[in-house]
């Protein structure tokens, strides 16, 4: 018996979902860059309109917006590294969200919309990582399992 190998065609078994994930990440990244950029570079009026900005959250989210776009492009191109970026974004966003919780617990000023936005970001990237893992596993093959190997 011969072992079956994954072909590029198996990676596209769910092209609509892959495209939705990729485009969703790109749009989410563009929106993040626009909103964060407006507060960062829009002057005193934009900063005042934003309310009680938590600087480390704003800076993280703005920087991460570029990575969102990159991860989306990778997903559209069926690149396995997009899964690694999605996992990295899920973890890093969760850590920043936890740091925001510490900031709030210590009496720091914040906007409730920041908590809502971080909840959305964390859920989005966790979902993105799980969905990409499901889609891309057929392209990369399953993890090696010594019991599955064909013996000659």
Structure described in brief:
By secondary structure, the protein is mainly α.
Question: Which key phrases capture this entry?
Answer:
disordered N terminus; globular; mainly alpha; 152 residues; single chain; 5 helices
3D structure, described in words:
- By secondary structure, the chain is mostly helical.
- The protein has one domain (15-140).
- It is built from 5 helices and no strands.
- It has helices spanning 15-41, 43-50, 55-76, 81-105, 112-140.
- Helix 1 packs antiparallel against helix 3, helix 1 (15-41) packs antiparallel against helix 5 (112-140) and helix 3 (55-76) runs antiparallel to helix 4 (81-105).
- The chain is globular and about 45 Å long.
- The termini are close together.
- Mean pLDDT is 87; it is low at 1-12.
Q: Tell me about the largest β-sheet.
A: none
- Give the topology string: H per helix, E per strand: HHHHH
Could you give the count of β-strands?
A: 0
Number of domains: 1
Low-confidence stretches: 1-12
Instruction: Count up the helices.
Output: 5
What does the average pLDDT come to? 87
Label the structural class. Answer: mainly alpha
Radius of gyration: 19 Å
């Amino acid at each position: 018996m011969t072992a079956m190998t994954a072909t590029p065609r198996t990676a596209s078994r769910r092209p609509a979902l892959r495209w939705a994930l990729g485009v969703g990440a790109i749009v989410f990244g563009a929106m993040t860059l626009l909103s964060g950029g407006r507060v960062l570079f829009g002057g005193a009026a934009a900063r005042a309109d934003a309310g009680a900005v938590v600087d480390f959250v704003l800076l993280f989210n703005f920087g991460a917006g570029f990575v969102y776009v990159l991860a989306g492009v990778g997903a559209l191109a069926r690149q396995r590294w997009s899964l690694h970026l999605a996992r990295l974004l899920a973890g890093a966003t969760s850590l920043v969200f936890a740091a925001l919780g510490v900031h709030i617990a210590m009496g720091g000023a914040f906007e409730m919309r920041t908590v809502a936005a971080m909840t959305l970001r964390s859920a989005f990237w966790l979902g993105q990582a799980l969905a990409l893992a499901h889609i891309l596993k057929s392209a990369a093959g399953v993890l090696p399992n010594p019991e599955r190997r064909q013996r000659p």
